[in-house]
Amino acid sequence: MTILVTLDEIRKGNIGLYDEVTVDWEILSAGGSSIPMESGEKIIVLDLLKSAAIKSANNAAYALAKHSGKGSIPRFIDMMNAKAKSLGLENELEFHTPAGLPDHMTRKKLDMGTANGIYRLSIEALKYPEYIAIARQKTAEIKNGSYKLKSTIHLLGKEGIYGLKTGYHTKSRFNITVLSDKDNANIVTVVMGGKSPKIRDGKILELNEKFHENYKNKDIIKKDIPVVSIPISGGYVADVKTYGTKSFSKIVKKDADVSIVTEREKKLVAPIKAGTVVGSYKVLVNGEVVFKDKLIVKRDVEKKKLMDKIMEIF
């Protein structure tokens, strides 16, 4: 969440990617995973983002919070919780610090999050390509190349995994949320409470394997492939092909019953212009409607001229 809120502030123009953040005692007080920092040192926001995303550096997260919060970490925490509420996650996520450290280290209330909350927040992260571009890096350099980061996600590049974030402390143990894109199925998997990184990562691979054994991403509608042809009278063609306005795919069980139901005129009459809506359709998976769209024609169908009709008679 710290990274997303920081990126929100960058998108709004309130802070810049190359702003210099001055390190102070409050930033240095963050324990746990960290990058080298000294009091009075200036580090650009981009390097702090890389450090928080790739290495899970807590002091980098504190620095981002203080800069984005206009010098106030408590103000930034309010921004984090406000974003959680805007996403409908106020009952799933509760923030009291920028880095999720245990309460005995921060002397604050313990940050709380459910697996479902982390899952939905990870889906929100997919809307931030600038974050994903950083999170998918196994290594990166900061501070003009003087310090090298190594990702805490050991599974990067395996089974289509390309992100996203790890977390650890003594009370919550080893946690991870990963993004993977395999067999055209882009999925999010969350594991919490692992006894070790190896056990946690093994569970991710096990869950993803089970998913791919039972589910697939099915291309149901492609906007350049006709949904149905409708007979037409008074024109130069016997029928006209109709299309959906957009493509649609969905992750479904491999044995799912997928069907398309159309609602349209039994017969059309020329002329018809390209783009004309001639009906609608809905996609059902196991009898449940999962998608609706219009049916349109993509080419003009001219009305047959009188002379051509006469010529047909003779």
Automatic annotation (TrEMBL):
Keywords: Carboxypeptidase, Cell shape, Cell wall biogenesis/degradation, Hydrolase, Peptidoglycan synthesis, Protease, Signal
Catalysed reaction equations from the record: Preferential cleavage: (Ac)2-L-Lys-D-Ala-|-D-Ala. Also transpeptidation of peptidyl-alanyl moieties that are N-acyl substituents of D-alanine
The keyword Cytoplasm is assigned to this record: no
Origin: domain of life: Bacteria
SMART domains per record: PBP5_C
Xref: Pfam families: PBP5_C, Peptidase_S11
Residues that bind substrate: K165
Segments passing through the bilayer: none
Domain Peptidase S11 D-Ala-D-Ala carboxypeptidase A C-terminal positions: 215-303
GO BP of this protein: cell wall organization; peptidoglycan biosynthetic process; proteolysis; regulation of cell shape
Gene Ontology molecular function terms on file: serine-type D-Ala-D-Ala carboxypeptidase activity
Pathway(s) served: Cell wall biogenesis; peptidoglycan biosynthesis
EC number(s) stated in the UniProt entry for this protein: 3.4.16.4
Function: Removes C-terminal D-alanyl residues from sugar-peptide cell wall precursors.
Family label: Belongs to the peptidase S11 family.
UniProt protein name: serine-type D-Ala-D-Ala carboxypeptidase
